[in-house]
Specification:
The protein is of the alpha/beta class. 42% of the residues lie in helices and 14% in strands. The longest helix is centred in the last third of the chain and has 21 residues. The protein is globular.
């Protein structure tokens, strides 16, 4: 992939024109053609009439095209792909529909997002489940030592599984350390367990950044969003579901889209719900977002396939990691180059400023990264739209801050 190709997408993103942006893991910039696609869709719906017999074929086509595209990206049939509003709803709605018994156990990694952890803890409270910890934050080998990370994660899984483990919760790409988890191998190991625990994967940081098909096919619940690395609009995502989720999990939040016949719900119907992924869809959603997400995915595809794009991301994150490692006063979380675009790092003890203060100071210079609390660190993300000069700007600004910290001690 050439530098000129990357600029083509970059130039389509107004958010990148007036700032140095490293927060793709929080939310990606929306390309102008994607915004235009949404506006066109909104206008078309109003032309047809927002609630007329003329508009339903249009809405159905938009929904089917989006479901099919996301299914192809995940390597699953459309009936296994539910449309969602975000990662959390994609994780929680199928999870809460599973048949639990008091005393069943949830095994949650120590690098999961607070939103998912909180949902799991509340589920455990309501259903009288026990919660266990899967330690994965300790694995920091980086890209070149991925085989050691994989082996370590699988051993930690072996040590942490209990006879009544019902669900394992593990992100594909850890949102705080940036390390890659061996999801297909984890799924294989779970199939050897007597209870064959369900595998729930938070894919917030993977979709649009790394190849996802193998992991999405292996997981029982593989939930992602369109507003981060895919550079789509907020409010639309998806979840790939295994056949046994479709067979065993009941709807959690229920609305007309959950029903096989959306026009009626009668007392004597024991099973009114869709038997496919639509049983986890609820009610009215924003249809124009679908046109925007498909446009963004199309623009990404023009930049190369998943593997080609990842190589560009890795070259940029590797350069950022190396420069942070060489910078006095900063230490990367990973001991080797990151497997993807998340580069987390800590400030040495000599720096008296908090991570939140660092973010604020950098932001005043138009450089945007974020701070995390578990572990306490800073995180900068590189995407295919990142430029080498932006990495230099970040490093130079960090150098100024660390020099100031040293001089004040």
């Amino acid at each position: 992939m050439t530098h000129a190709h990357r600029n083509s997408l970059r130039d389509l993103c107004p958010a990148l024109g007036n700032k140095t942006y490293f927060n793709y893991g929080g939310q990606g910039p929306l390309p102008s053609p994607s915004l235009e696609a949404m506006t066109t869709s909104w206008k078309r719906i109003q032309e047809l009439g927002p609630f007329t017999t003329d508009v339903w074929p249009h809405i159905s086509a938009e929904t089917n095209k989006t479901r099919a595209l996301l299914g192809r990206l995940c390597g699953v049939a459309p009936h296994r792909l539910a449309l969602t509003e975000n990662v959390t709803s994609g994780c929680v709605l199928p999870l809460w529909g599973l048949p639990f018994k008091a005393g069943d156990r949830l095994l949650i990694s120590d690098c999961e997002h607070p939103g998912v952890v909180a949902a799991c803890l509340e589920l455990a409270r309501r259903e009288h489940l026990d919660v266990d910890n899967l330690p994965v934050q300790q694995f920091k080998q980086g890209r070149e030592g991925q085989h050691k990370t994989d082996a370590g994660v699988l051993q930690a899984l072996t040590d942490s599984l209990q006879p009544r483990t019902k669900v394992v919760v593990l992100s594909h790409l850890l949102w705080n350390t940036g390390q890659l988890m061996p999801i297909p191998a984890v799924a294989d190991q779970l199939r050897q367990h007597a209870q064959q625990p369900f595998l729930l994967v938070d894919a917030a940081q993977s979709m649009g950044q790394i190849p996802v098909e193998a992991a999405a096919q292996a997981a029982d619940i593989y939930a992602f969003t369109g507003h981060k690395w895919t550079c789509g609009p907020e409010g639309l995502g998806g979840v790939a579901l295994s056949e046994r989720i479709l067979n065993q999990a009941n709807p959690t939040l229920i609305g007309w889209r959950s029903l096989r016949d959306e026009t009626r719900a009668v007392m004597n119907d024991p099973d009114p719900f869709h038997h496919d992924s639509r049983r986890f869809e609820i009610a009215t959603s924003c249809v124009p977002l679908m046109a925007g997400l498909r446009q963004s995915l199309g623009l990404l595809a023009k930049e190369g396939n998943e593997q080609e794009r990842l190589q560009t991301i890795q070259s940029l994150s590797g350069e950022l990691w190396r420069q942070i490692k060489e910078l006095p006063g900063t230490t990367p979380l990973l001991e080797g180059e990151p497997p993807a675009g998340l580069v987390s790092f800590k400030l040495n003890s000599e720096n008296t400023r908090s991570t939140a203060e660092i973010v604020k100071i950098l932001g005043s210079k138009g450089i945007w990264i974020r701070n995390l609390e578990e572990p306490i660190c800073l995180r900068a993300c590189t995407h295919i739209t990142t430029e080498a000069q932006e990495i230099s700007q970040l490093i130079n600004s960090l150098r100024e801050l660390t020099i100031t910290a040293y001089s004040s001690t």
